[in-house]
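Model it.
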Amino acid sequence: MTKSAPLTPAQQTRLLSLSGNSTCAECSTPNPSWCTLTYGATLCLDCAGLHRGLGVHLSFVRSITMDDWTSDQYDQMMRGGNTKWNSSWKEGNSTAEFREKQAWKMVRDGQKERGEMREVVKKKYESEVAERYREMLAKKNGAAKNSADDNTPSSMQAEVVPLKAEEPPTLEQCKAVTFQFMISLLTSEPKNLMPLIMWVVCGVALSSWVNKHVPSSYKNMLVPSIMGFTAFVPYYFINIMCTKYASGWVNHRLDAFNSARNLFIELITNKRAKRLDTCDVYYPTTAKPRTAKVGLIFYPGALVDRTAYAPIASKLADAGVFVVIANLEPFRLVATLKMYNTKERVMRMISDSLLLGTQDGSGLWEVEQWAIGGHSFGGSLAVAACANEMHSTLKKVVLWGVGSYPNQTMHPCKALRDIASDVDVLVVNGSNDAIIKAFGGKAAWKNMEDQLPPAGDVSKGRTTDQGCTFYATIEGGNHSGCAHYGPQIYPVRDGDRTITLDEQQDQMADLTVSFLLG
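Modeled.
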């Protein structure tokens, strides 16, 4: 946009995908259609009215769907976001933020009239914290570098760190990997080879019959043709399947929302996160410097950009968990363990995160206990890693969006229930998760229950020395709600969320933190 014009649907989607923008920045009403340009935050219709009462010098209000916008106005909104503003407000005035949150809860519960919040909102936006923030946001570089004093929140002082673009794999690269996968699939079990063996036997038998019963003038041409056709057909169908899988890998990569990328950049800028070759590290807030009670190695879902987990990983880190998100670029999945040394990779991530991932180089981190987890296909990899080699080191497993035990062809492993009696598992799924319903089903779920440790009560935790599996369902949540990406339509279309993305991830984070630190 060079002139004033309505936002396009794509621009509206990008704006609303920023962290926290799916709800009103003031009262948390879902699906806001208004905003305050001054703070880069979205508002519901009622709260937009409160902001208009402040005057344009404190809050300039626009409609996301009806008003015309200039390119500078849109850019300013994209530099903001509800989470960014609310975090700065909380950091600058935590007492007022807490009281305000309680007051808005009373409004939502019908115990307080919205009009009574007018004075609260006025004091908030007349504060020094709000003044510094709107000055920072008005700058095109998005950061106040020289004018910040000692009272300015740290998130508003740091210089922005760029995030290096990562090149996706080519179709030929993906075909090479899928070819190895198909070969390992065929050779993993004798029954998988039976159709191929029978085809070859038929081809050899036909060649033998032709060689015995057909005149020499014809058999010299027919026998090579039959053998060539016998070899060509399997290769042709394997190539077709490899191309199909490879095309899916290339065309259905699930990139992170801009809100997740912006948050990750902000965390790196503020030395709360770091990107390493093997993983992304999210540093926790802990009482003892550079010491965490629990560290979590986490594998992303298939084809999902690891940056998409920045919002929920930061929630876990804020609660005290040392979070390490595995780097599976460029393919963003592990098709078979034959191509991935799980133990070596996990130990390398642990080593790198502790030794190379120090925030300022002043000291190493110490983590008392390690856990492993994953989302969807990444969860299968986590279970296999624990069951096969690392159950003596990894005593807790976190699974998001998982409805079946690892496929024994791709991620072969023994039953975790049999191999590790003291390992606890947390399984968190959304009630509207269409991915696990399509690829799981009742039989797959029953098999998973039989392979994992016995079920326990998530509200009570473990009550015996025996490991337990705790199952939790997020009502209204879906598969892609485990991270900031989507919509997910491959290999099947995901279900629709009936709660906000932040609401789903808040519940997931609370369950995970309670499980890991409880």
